[in-house]
Amino acid sequence: MLQELFIKNFAIIDDLRICFSEGLTILSGETGAGKSVIINAINLLLGSRASAKLIRTGAKSAEVEGFFHIGAESKNAKIIEKYGYDVAEGLLVRRIISKNSKHKIYINGNLATTNVLNSITRGLLNISGQHANQYFLKEGQHLLILDQFARVLLLRSKVYECYHKIAPLIKKLSILNKKKDQQKEHIELLEHQKKEITDTAIVFGEDETLKQEITRLKNKEFLFKTAYLSVDELYNANGAIIERLEYVSKNLEKACMIDNKLSKGTKTLTDAKFLIEEAVNDLLEYIKKIQIDNDQLEAMETRLYTLQTLKRKYGKTLEEVLLHLESITKELNECENITAEILNVTDEIVLLHKTIEGFVNKLSEKRKQAAKDLGKKVEKELASLKMSKTKFEIVLNKMVAGDNISPYLKTNNYAINESGIDNATFMIAPNIGEELKPLTSIASGGELSRVVLSLKSILAITESVGTVIFDEVDAGIGGSVAEIVGKKLTQLSSYHQVICITHLPQIAKFGDHHFTISKQVSDGRTKTVITPVKHAERVNEIAKMLGGETITQTTLAHAREMLNLKDGGGK
């Protein structure tokens, strides 16, 4: 509930403070006195865009401040607490508009942003007027109004939450599938490379071993001949080295018997003889084993060629080839992870789709009956507002899903969005013989005002908004209709704080509180003044609204009668 409003240097308002109470508050006054300026100031408190053009001429800045009482259990209380403010303190919103466009917002004394302000004040206050009534001309709002009447906002919120879970997952699934399709050829290439490397069964360093072995095999004849001739020279031939060593050794042994100083040299020669014999045995073993095997050579050359081919493709060395294999394996694993992720995301989407299908179909069924009931109630309300022959219906249409809609956002070929599967359109025929037409085609402001008032009267119990402001609710109406509108506003004030700007005494008389807004000239400047009207002053104000500036005894008597009738016989 709006408890206090302070406006300074804003348009034609110099310095204005208004205290509001529960019930129905009437604001009346001459045209151009500043009533619309007050509405603009309140809109600023709700987060509307600020402009330096709003600053009063001659001032450097403008200021608007509003204090709201917030119910501890209200939706707004939860939002306010979410942003770290204490609900027990109420809500104090202050906006400062500067000529340099460096505007500031304060919430409970702390700097804040427009986004935070919009979040906190959403649903706090509702303004109905010639411009605000355009809200009811938006077909997108008709479904929300119907859902509010049907008391299915909780179910609708479940649809909203579920939709905003499944929609990003559907997008993610599409991205994953595209990525997988794009990788298909690349995966095939990687798998081919992996097979080519793993089938080769590389042994680290084997290419160098093969080179050495191939060189040996290619030179086997030379090696055999060399080894054979070496054995011959060392052991088999006449005058072989081993024979000559034995001859020398024997002579030295005889000489050692004469001079043992020769024993060292003799021993060395003896050792040499044994070493030569050992070398001969090794050479003989070598000769036994060495064979000229062309098939083995060909196999080794083929193997080396295979390894060299892998090195040309995947790395300069076998080590680099093996590192490339690791890289391929890792990338293929990642691709497999995409497949697994696709399966996981799909499972999650299927589950959410089943859930949202249940929600939207249940919501659609509840809307059907509610549409009939709301249509009848609006007709009844309009009849009480002198539109007795008016027909009012709510047409529900399910949204047919196109081919471009994901199958997970369909149910029975109907498209699912964040509000369900339905569209609602308010249809009206104000006069007998006319066809029902969309409310959006209504030309009469008076008719629209009465439709809005009817809807607000019906929704009063279910609407959570604390304050409702009617700006020119009397547009296009008068006489007995105005009287009924006043009664409707009184009924509405049982559920909400109602502030009504009006020119009609038939409405003004129902106010629990009454303020007049007027213009005064002071020091060559025009400014807006607001004055509370009570007791006898109120009779004068009602009389002025009845007869203009010239007040007669007749108009005063009429004003007293109106106020007495309103009060059920007098105050």
Describe the structure.
The protein is α+β, with helices and mostly antiparallel strands. Among the domains are: 191 residues, Rossmann fold, CATH 3.40.50; 124 residues, no CATH class; 38 residues, no CATH class. The chain is 54% helix and 17% strand. A six-stranded antiparallel beta sheet has the order 2-1-4-5-6-7. Strands 8-14-15-3-16-17 form a six-stranded mixed beta sheet, sandwiched between helices.
Key descriptive features of the protein:
single chain, 571 residues, alpha+beta, Rossmann fold, six-stranded antiparallel sheet, six-stranded mixed sheet, elongated
Number of separate helices: 16
Shape estimate: elongated
CATH superfamily grouping of one domain: P-loop containing nucleotide triphosphate hydrolases
Task: Provide the residue-averaged pLDDT.
Answer: 87
Q: In CATH terms, what is the architecture of one domain?
A: 3-Layer(aba) Sandwich
Write the layout of secondary structure elements.
Elements: E1 2-10, E2 13-19, E3 24-29, H1 35-45, E4 61-68, H2 75-82, E5 91-98, E6 104-107, E7 110-112, H3 114-121, E8 125-128, H4 139-150, H5 153-200, H6 206-218, H7 220-236, H8 241-258, H9 263-289, H10 294-314, H11 318-384, E9 391-398, E10 410-411, E11 414-415, E12 422-429, E13 437-438, H12 445-459, E14 467-471, H13 479-492, E15 497-501, H14 505-508, E16 513-522, E17 525-532, H15 535-547, H16 553-566
Helix pairs in contact: 4-11, 5-11, 6-10, 7-9, 8-9, 10-11, 11-12, 12-13, 15-16
